[in-house]
Automatic annotation (TrEMBL):
This is Vacuolar protein sorting-associated protein 62. InterPro entries: Vps62 (IPR009291). Residues 1-22 form the signal peptide. Pfam families: Vps62 (PF06101). The keyword Signal applies. The keyword Transcription does not apply. Coiled coil: none annotated. Keywords: Signal.
Amino acid sequence: MLFFFVIYLLVLDMFLIYPKLQFTKKRKKNPMGNCIPSLNKEIKSLPNDAIFKLPSPLPNWPPGTGDFGSGYIDLGGLKVCQIVTFNKVWVIDKGGPDNLGATFYEPSPIPDGFSMFGCYCQPNNKPLFGWVLVGKDNVGEILKNPIDYTLVWSSESSKFKNKNSNDHGYIWLPIPPEGYKALGHVVTTLPEKPALDKIQCVRSDLTDELEVESWVWGQGTTSKVNGINVHSVRPQERGVKAQGVSVGTFLARITSDKDDDSNKTLSLACLKNNKFSTFSSMPNLSQIQALFEQYSPIIYFHPKEKYLPSSVNWYFANGALLYQKSQESNPSPIEPNGSNLPQDGPNDGAYWLDLPIDEKNKEKAIKGDLLNSEVYLHIKPMLGATFTDIAVWIFYPFNGPGTAKLGLVDVPFGKIGEHVGDWEHVTLRISNFNGVLHKVYFSQHSGGTWLDAPQVEFQNGSNKVVVYSSLNGHAVYPKPGLVLQGGGDIGIRNDTAKSNLVLDCGKNYSIIAAENLEIIVPAWLNYTREWGPKLSYTLGDEVEKIESSLKGNLKGAFEKLVKVLPNEVYGEEGPTGPKMKGNWNRDEV
Ligand SMILES: *[C@@H]1O[C@H](CO)[C@@H](O)[C@H](O)[C@H]1NC(C)=O
Ligand SMILES: *[C@@H]1O[C@H](CO)[C@@H](O)[C@H](O)[C@H]1NC(C)=O
Ligand SMILES: *[C@@H]1O[C@H](CO)[C@@H](O)[C@H](O)[C@H]1NC(C)=O
Ligand SMILES: *[C@@H]1O[C@H](CO)[C@@H](O)[C@H](O)[C@H]1NC(C)=O
Ligand SMILES: *[C@@H]1O[C@H](CO)[C@@H](O)[C@H](O)[C@H]1NC(C)=O
Ligand SMILES: *[C@@H]1O[C@H](CO)[C@@H](O)[C@H](O)[C@H]1NC(C)=O
Ligand SMILES: *[C@@H]1O[C@H](CO)[C@@H](O)[C@H](O)[C@H]1NC(C)=O
């Protein structure tokens, strides 16, 4: 690892000494039109300049009725196009994540008639993988040049400059005409203001408010440091009905420890899809099927996993029971299609589901039914329907207990962490311009992680996303290994590993909801109560039982661990179904 890092730094140095090593570009016709240019293969470039490509070439998507896959999206008079190839403008070799600096790029080539909204910037600690939108005014008066620029920052006037070169960078903020907004910055290597026709501002009614997303470069990760900071941005409102469109640009500002962020209006805006309600950029059913065939996750279970997934119908048909409060002695069987589950209403504890009572049937149910399992897809228009999120929901009849790791010793957590009915999900974020997978979200109980496509493992040369389900708890991870929840070497184990236990999500799935399509919603989706009973054991007793089996230091360590773990670990409540989760209508958190 260190070795590669040193090589990487050497190459980085080389580039900085010979700044003329630039991209050479070549426009090539391709099925998406000239919107997606390809780069000449013989270019000399930095390791972080190699543009990521999915392992397998993408098919031609089946025809649809709208903009999906065409390379362009009409936002209501403003046509936009997603550019993934760039000209390098300026490199700074320090600051930012891992103190490796960042690189500023201009989209290039830009298709005829389209204009730039702003530059792209990313940290130097990862391969080039990004995009910015460029736009074309199909109506007139939607786009206007700025009336002036102000200099946000330059390395010349800053102590914060390149270690290894005298190149200077200048970050400009366009000043929009009245009634218009700027969407991004221009970056130059000269102190003169850029030409006014370098960039376009957008009429305010086609813009939305944005917020800071993650730190790209600058003085410090928080906005409470004095100096320049560059952040990626995203629409403030994000969800299946939100019209805000990410432009892919960055926000540069001078921050100060005296800043009151809550009160500060940001100098840039994002776009807004005024044609959102027509869903004309969303894939239709045939296109969704083709996308899922391409990227459908392959889920690996731990070799010791005993609690495997099943289809919901199998679980219902194999003895799951519906309980009603104050009639606990008389549970009802559930129709295989869930049609006798109570619909809608608040999650008030009036009903819950549980495993069969009969021991033999219970044993069968908790093991799941991997071979005939089914996953459930929710199709979500995101970022103003410029992306499609495919949320893939997996059901497990049973979530097994946790294992505590106390230094070198593993201690089974008794019943702690066990619960009936476990819903997990993984989400694919796909560009509606071209059907390219951009990000994958791995859910880990109440939280999760987004990874960019280059950081994701793909199955054996295909574009299928590899996912690891943790032993017993089924949290979804991008890598095999051990993740400890807790502190130091004390925590709850989440083990993942490859084994013969595999779920190929593409083999058996059904779409249970889609904002843009008429879908027959299964009755169980509208069941709003919990899929398992409340705590089937007394936490205190359980903790005591484990503690009394431990000696000396372990006892102390265990006590410490119990205090710091969040409630969710104890599985105090059975979980609710997919529709009750915060991310059902909103972005993942
Ligand atoms: C998707 O749209 C295309 C073009 O209109 C149409 O031929 C195809 O049948 C549609 N697919 C579905 C499943 O509706
Ligand atoms: C916040 O904004 C309000 C209204 O613009 C202003 O009156 C107030 O002084 C601001 N507060 C701070 C701490 O900047
Ligand atoms: C569910 O299954 C029952 C029979 O088990 C049937 O009567 C009912 O029509 C089905 N409901 C739906 C919505 O398919
Ligand atoms: C797909 O899932 C359904 C349950 O919803 C099940 O009946 C069927 O056997 C599964 N098919 C395959 C091929 O696994
Ligand atoms: C991987 O791909 C190769 C060639 O396409 C195939 O022969 C092999 O069976 C695949 N392995 C797995 C585990 O899918
Ligand atoms: C580890 O597993 C526990 C129990 O399954 C779960 O609640 C927790 O969220 C997991 N931790 C992480 C960091 O994923
Ligand atoms: C489920 O709920 C949605 C919205 O609440 C409703 O439109 C739909 O008809 C319901 N489906 C069933 C099967 O009850």
